[in-house]
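Example record used in the benchmark description.
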Amino acid sequence: MKKVLLFVCSLFIGLAYGQKSENSLLWKISGNGLSKPSYLFGTIHITCDATLSEKVKKALDNTEQLCLELDMDDPGMQGQMLNSMMMKDGVTMKSLTTEADFKIVDAFLTNNIGYSAEILNPVKPFMIATMLYPKMLGCEMQSVETELMAIAKAQNEEVIGLETVAEQLAVFDAIPYKEQMNELVITAKDNMQRDKTELNEMMALYQTENVEAMLTFTEKSPNVMTSKYIDIMLNNRNNNWISRIDKIAKTKPTFFGVGAAHLGGKQGVIALLRKAGFTVEAVN
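Model output (structure tokens):
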């Protein structure tokens, strides 16, 4: 029933845009002064199967560089991320919740990642949640971005980013730490069951290549980190990316890979690129 509702939602979204909504993760960008087309691809950051389709591999062959959300082959990226993990102004997880809930989180983190909440006390709760992804998957974690980078490296192509580590992690300072902690408490109390269910549903939806349904799924998420703060997580960043995509694509044909939830909707990258004058067509 849930999948039926998602399909109906995406259908109405497509009608609202006055054009047929096509199911594809890969889109060709042309026109607006481009001498050669670039490509836009919706990724999934963690999955059980990151196998790339033949059409994606062909698009990589037809471009000259790879642009992800971040420049993931930057040797300084890990250090930058570590420097941005801590909450500002001396805030700690213990100060954001009750003593009883902190004890629950402490036992949960010790059991699942081998570090206590006492040790991780000043770290942003969202960053801690990302450490739990391998446990949520129930399989060996794979990354579409890693597969894209492997091909780019084999082709001796440069990997660049649409935003800096500081810009991306600033998102998690804009979302109240209290709400981040509330979500981590929920995760601890139900031993990740809600998150596991949502992740499995998202991975299944990703296989349909329906970018509008993926956006709808994100908007309806029970996790307020995404649904309540979708402007911070998606829309604001999408708008910031358009001028950067324009500049990069006019430099050389580029394969752009960003999270699939960024593609659909009126504030999605596809619609915004079209508004900026580009022709954006599904590759099937």
